[in-house]
Predict the structure.
Amino acid sequence: MAIKKKSSGGGGANWMDTYGDMVTLLLCFFVLLYSMSSISQENWKAIVQSFNPTAVESPTATTGAGGPDADNNGDSGIMSIEEQQEEVEQDMESLLQAIQNFVEQESMQESVSVRQDGGKIFVTFSQSVFFDGNSSVLRREAYPILDAVSDMLSSVADSIDEVRVQGHTARARTDGNTVVTDRTLSSQRATNVIIHIQQKSTVNPARLVSEGFGEWRPIAPNDTPENMAKNRRVEMIISGRDLEAEMAGEATLSQFEQQYEIIV
């Protein structure tokens, strides 16, 4: 009995299936590469910011005009914490110099003092610069001064951790001032100064603080009119940001800023 031979026609070699799968995978791979190569700059910034909230974009120049010969071996344009902190310190030094120059130009050395201590800038204004006696209403002459200070604060707003304004009064009577009047007057004076700064500057409101101490933190004895005039004052304390502390979670002002921006 003769054995019928199997037909070899139809179908195709088995290796074609494997080859087709490989080509499909290669196509998917190159599609993924292309999608990654066209990522937007904004999306890239968002990714970097998610890993480093304090990262600051720093433009860097490359050779080759961005073409195939461009030098892309430089840094990524993201400043380190140390570099950012150095920039904060430079801004605070610039702010100190700006305030000192303004006081000299306006010949206000007798009524305004400026000093730096422990990374903070202390500016002390005598009562007569902003207010009349027993009044918390800003004098007309105070507006240009506060406008100038607000502009200087705005120029370094990103480097400021806090602007704290403190109101102080002096003991006007031997038996002491009325508690309500004393505390209210000093608090309202500090508040009115802060309100003007908030309205005229770009410093985040979460970083603006006002407080009144009344007569209880004098810098001179209340025994002469000259000494009492020294005690009647408005102090402004400006502190720069501590980025390492913020990264360690020790500072909370950045959280308040984020909450404020979300609410607004």
